[in-house]
Amino acid sequence: MSRSARRLIRIVTVVLVVAFLAGFVVQPSQAQTGEIIHTVQRGEMLQTIARLYGTTWQAIATRNNLANPNLIYVGQQLVIPRSTITPIPHTYVVQRGDTLRNIATRHGTTWQNLAAINNLANPNHIYVGQVLRLTGTVVQPPPQPPTHGRTHVVRPGDTISRIARWYGVDMWNLARANNILNLNLIYVGQVLWLP
Questions:
Q1: pLDDT tens figures, 95-134
Q2: 41: nearest Cα among 109, 116, 94, 114
Q3: Separation between Cα atoms, residue 136 and residue 117, nearest integer Å
Q4: N vs C: which end of the chain shows fewer Cβ within 10 Å?
């Protein structure tokens, strides 16, 4: 093979590699100014996410280059283009650096009230892009589990499924009995009632 042919092959290879890598660099997770990143949670669909932000699922799918809008996964980060958002009255979208306490202070309420209104199992765990209701009816706390029966105090490394297996109970019943909406959100020291 001649020297010029080898050189041409190298150039074509470099161009193809650069083009391939450029596809990874220009990803939708790189939010531009004025856009919000939403992390997909369990049970969410593009339509429900769009409703949270007052936009359309088509706008989110287009901005994120989703080939199939029905295929999103837990933990996936979606860019919500701010230009398409219609503000929903009495809500707040969590920004980087926010805590429930400073959001409450800015809106003239308490962090306890915000936690109750939004049914937050763990008030210390809010995430960027989460939509919080600022006003509304406080959700009544779930009925307290009976004082008789067994309880488990969550230790480091515990998970709902591990605790359920340990005591031989169904993890969904365990979550329901303790009003746990997100199976990944339990914290050390939390007391769980075992159904």
A1: 888 899 888 888 888 888 888 888 787 888 888 888 888 8
A2: 94
A3: 6
A4: N
Measured CA to CA, the distance from residue 52 to residue 88 in angstroms comes to 8
Residue type, 173: N
Write the pLDDT tens digit of every residue in 44-74: 888 878 877 777 888 889 889 998 888 898 8
The residue segments making up the domain with residue 173 are: 150-194
Residue with tokens 């969550």: 154
d(CA 195, CA 188): 20
Neighbouring C-beta atoms of residue 60, cutoff 10 Å:
24
- Give the contacts of 184 (CB within 8 A, at least 6 positions apart): 42
- Where residue 112 sits, what CATH number does that domain have? 3.10.350.10
